[in-house]
Design a protein that fits this description.
13 strands, nine-stranded mixed beta sheet, 34% helix, homodimer, alpha/beta
């Protein structure tokens, strides 16, 4: 890694830690979208934007935007985005590292007296994490014109609807259409990897080729509730035994597919509920939620198509059956723009940083921006791949390196793009 | 099945249905121990006892006892017992069939002018089902002198302690020692099978050789929480995948042991909880509760001793480990008295009823009486083996047949016993 980066590493780190310190006191690190603490965080981000020479506004969708005009009238905008909200009991880097890196880029542009033809913006997208409204990427959906009327009327547990909450964040839902953008020349996002690959491969920068598509499937396995003391083993229809066979074969099949050379592929049973869940009753029913992600759409479709017969075979002999097999959601992969990827690779190389081309298994605001503009992402290493936990960690130098790649890429894109 | 039984089949059935009708209105059939509805049920049982010629009292442990004196002074007592409390959302037969059968026997004794040398009692044991105090068989434990000081101070969710609740049921915990019995010549209990064996074997009466010992083991399987989208399949430590391997091998091993010719053996994972149980997080931890029951103590011990290495082998390759393996409870099998079993077999045969000798996988009050007196049980068929559900069902004729076996057995025991 190069020592002399065009980024104020210490300033960036200090800003990031100061933002992280704005946490719900009883459970660090928590700054949930729409909460009072979130607004405190936003006020800090806005102040740092202003300090970096950016003009600050909140768009009608509640996104916080810091802008620097370009020299060319009517030139489009180069955007660096990410988010400042966190999951509950999350870390100090997810999202915030990207926002603060954007601000550090703005500061370097000012310090180095850079004159850009394009306008430049840093966007702190509203509510990227799954929010109390059961929805993620609220701000970036709106920028892509994809926040629906139905979604705007969803309510959280105390009854507030999303539209009202966006207004409370400084938005103006009556004028939501004006948040939709058609002036973005390029969208860049830096994010922590949230996985162990860069650490394991000892690379500085992940060049993110795509955000994996995500298919979620609810599977219900039915057996029969019987007395656990009195029902002979041969007469049971134990739904947990059926579900165990299903979980085992899903893991085995996913390992096989992940090794098949079709890019990123993972499948996880993360939610699993048994009924009646009593010590002396043979389980009658298991509901499990399968989350499958793939870089290649066709490869994911193949997995889903072959899954049910695979499970049925694995469960044969358990006297249980699949009573429900329902695709709950099915998001397409989002591809990075190849030209932007080349610029990010070149920028990394110029800085003496090593790269690894990879897909993102997690969703990001970039997926929504990619619908309306050339977009791309980079990853920086996550210690042991830990994320969404207080253990989340990236080194100050790793974050500064990512910000430096963004800085170099912005300079190159300003010249290369119309 | 013989048509002409020495029991008033219709009267017994009507009594049983009248008792069942005393249920919490919103969730039939529910008459939880210590509830107001339980006291209503008890009042009805007491009235039916009196009607059958029994003198009614409540002992200091809160057991409801109907007694008929014998001709021989100082002769011991022949007891028929079971319980009138139910599980939540239970059936109309579990426990109550045995109590009402005992009362029907008393009525037949009176009607036939039988003169017994022994005293005869019907005992409605307090709180056989696991109660709000987290304890089962409260009344029969006390009769066996096994209700501990610690247990008496346990409290239920609203704060009442067990000792106060027993007093509220008509008991007198200050004099609890007097509930302990040393005058029982024989204890008999009729219960629904709660399993499908008698139905499948087309037999009228189960001659219960033993109540299986029950060992409950809590097993915790640890993996590591990782992002389900970003963590490659090869780098995961998925606790659910480890637990699935464990559940499968437990079921397989239990089927093998159940077929090995060592009497009743079952093993069930009935409680199963995963953490964090979120769609996008690789499961970090699974806690499962294993309930294993066997007629032969040594056979159960062998299962428990070989279990941990068996699980470790099955989980190898899943990168998960067993972090806890804790025996939560370990109840010895309770053996029926062989002489009583022969009497029950003879009584069945004399009535033209077919029998099947079997162990009970479920616990019963008999297990506690067997510590202080010769004891034995019979089962009557349960439709499809269903129990602890509103579907619970036994035919009027099946219940009357069981009561008739008790009646014949009481007459024979009165002659045979000292």
């Amino acid at each position: 890694m190069r020592a002399n980066l065009p980024i104020d590493e210490t300033g960036l780190w200090d800003d990031l830690m100061a933002l992280a310190a704005l946490t719900d006191a009883d459970r660090p690190w928590t700054r949930r979208a729409f909460s009072p603490m979130f607004l405190e965080g936003r006020a800090f981000v806005a102040e740092r934007m202003r300090d970096a020479g950016l003009a600050v506004r909140i768009d009608t969708a509640g996104n916080l935007i810091g802008r620097r005009e370009g020299r060319t009238e009517d030139a489009k905008t180069i955007v660096i985005g990410s988010h400042s909200d966190t999951v509950p009991d999350g870390g100090r880097f997810d999202g915030t590292a990207g926002v603060m890196a954007g601000i550090a880029v703005a500061r370097s542009l000012t310090r180095h007296g850079a004159k850009l033809d394009h306008a430049f913006e840093v966007i702190d997208c509203l509510a990227e994490e799954v929010s109390i409204f059961g929805l993620s990427c609220i701000g970036s959906r709106a920028i892509a014109g994809q926040l629906s009327e139905e979604q705007l009327t969803r309510s959280e547990p105390t009854g507030e609807i999303l539209a009202a909450a966006i207004d409370r964040m400084g938005g103006d839902v009556d004028e939501l259409d004006t948040a939709k953008r058609d002036d973005i020349a390029a969208y860049l996002e830096m994010h922590i990897e949230q996985g162990p690959v860069l650490q394991d491969e000892r690379r500085d920068i992940g060049i993110v080729t795509a955000i994996a598509g995500i298919t979620r499937i609810e599977i219900v396995i039915e057996g029969r509730a019987d007395h656990a003391g009195t029902t002979p083993m041969t007469l049971r229809q134990d739904a947990l035994v059926g579900a165990a066979a299903a979980v085992s074969v899903i893991a085995k099949d996913a390992r096989r597919r992940a090794a098949a050379g079709h890019g990123h592929f993972v499948a996880t049973v993360g939610e699993f509920r048994i009924e009646p869940n009593a010590a002396n009753v043979v389980p009658s029913r298991v509901t499990l939620l399968l989350d499958a992600r793939a870089e290649e759409r066709g490869f994911l479709q193949g997995f889903v198509e072959e899954l049910r017969p695979l499970l049925t075979r694995a469960m044969s002999g358990t006297a249980t059956r699949i009573s429900e097999f329902r695709i709950l959601s099915d998001a397409l992969p989002a591809l990075s723009d190849p030209r932007l990827l080349d610029v990010l690779e070149d920028a990394s190389g110029a800085l003496g940083l090593t790269t690894h081309w990879m897909a993102s298994g997690a969703g990001h605001d970039m997926a929504w921006f990619s619908r309306i503009a050339p977009s791309a992402m980079i990853f920086i290493p996550s210690k042991d791949g830990r994320s969404h936990t207080p253990d989340e960690w990236s080194e100050p130098g790793e974050i500064a390196a990512g910000a430096a790649v963004l800085y170099e890429a912005v300079l190159r894109l300003d010249k290369a793009l119309a």
